[in-house]
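To: structure desk
From: M.T.
Subject: fold request, one chain
Message: Could you run this one when you get a chance? Sequence is below, nothing fancy, just the single chain.
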Amino acid sequence: MGRNSKSNSLLRRKQMKSIVDEYVSYLQNIGLKTFQIILKEGGPSSLNSRLEMKKYIDKFEKCFNELDLLEQDIIFNDYIEKKDGFWWMEFFSQATYYRLKDKTIIHFLDIWNK
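Reply: Done. Structure tokens follow.
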């Protein structure tokens, strides 16, 4: 694998991590308050913020659901659940895992960027 290829792979992984971290953060944030509490506390700007979070969550889940089950497992275990770094060892060799992970991230980001 060339230097440029490794660099691109690293950038894609960082982008994937950023997308998932924001998704998880929004899930946690949106679950804390109801629309009525937000309207009383913060008015329309808080409601707009909440709606933007909901759109982001919906977009993430739509992209996630377009992946096959293996790809979903990789995203879930590596980025959402953040399982220990070697959860995949009982299923794949290291080379196969990293090849599948890179393919999964590319697939997810292709869907995300449509």
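Reply (cont.): Helices lie at 3-30, 35-66, 69-80, 94-112. Let me know if you need anything else for the meeting.
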